[in-house]
């Protein structure tokens, strides 16, 4: 059976995907930021799990080393991400929304590339129509939560072959947190 690694698997879309794939008999490997939530889903699914906070690139490097233990990775689902609060620079020196949504998953994929090629793996990058709610102007000097989300997700399109699916809506932390800001009604996804 195929091994599928899902980042952002502790909640929302990632957790829903992990449940469905596990129910279909796939070997799922969960990656999450929250120890409590990730362990809860891992226990529910009887699946291995790993922790990584994408706002720290050292965590991503450690995660890549841990994932080398799997002889084969058939699918890497880069699902972790979201919209952060006010502009914040990570300890790595990057704007947080940009790092979490683009740099960290790009780094993970790069660090696993030989293993992915050897396995003839597929890489899936989760994105969202919600990114369009913040406009399309990309200003690298101002990547706060509203302005950094769309470009950070869109950068993946420069290097891939795209297939678009709409799996339906899933309640996510982003939706719950930002519902009061009126963002969900503008996103077209809720």
Automatic annotation (TrEMBL):
The lineage of its organism: Bacteria, Bacillati, Bacillota, Bacilli, Bacillales. GO terms for molecular function: oxidoreductase activity. InterPro entries: NAD(P)-bd_dom_sf, SDR_fam. Keywords: Oxidoreductase. The keyword Oxidoreductase applies. It comes from the Bacteria. This is Oxidoreductase. Transmembrane segments: none annotated.
């Amino acid at each position: 059976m195929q091994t599928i690694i899902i980042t952002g698997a502790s909640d929302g879309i990632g957790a829903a995907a992990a449940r469905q794939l596990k129910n279909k008999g796939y070997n799922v490997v969960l990656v999450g930021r929250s120890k409590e939530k990730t362990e809860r889903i891992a226990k529910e699914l009887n699946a291995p799990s790993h922790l990584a906070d994408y706002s720290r690139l050292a965590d991503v490097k450690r995660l890549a080393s841990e994932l080398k233990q799997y002889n084969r990775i058939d699918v890497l689902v880069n699902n972790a991400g979201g919209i952060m609060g006010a502009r914040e620079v990570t300890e790595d020196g990057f704007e947080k929304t940009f790092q979490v949504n683009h740099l960290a998953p790009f780094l993970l994929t790069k660090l696993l590339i030989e293993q992915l090629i050897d396995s003839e793996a597929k890489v899936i990058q989760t994105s969202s129509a919600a990114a369009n709610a913040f406009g399309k102007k990309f200003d690298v000097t101002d990547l706060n939560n509203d302005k950094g989300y769309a470009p950070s997700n869109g950068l993946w399109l420069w290097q891939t072959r795209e297939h678009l699916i709409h799996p339906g809506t899933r309640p996510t932390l982003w939706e719950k947190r930002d519902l009061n800001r009126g963002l969900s009604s503008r996103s077209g996804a809720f």
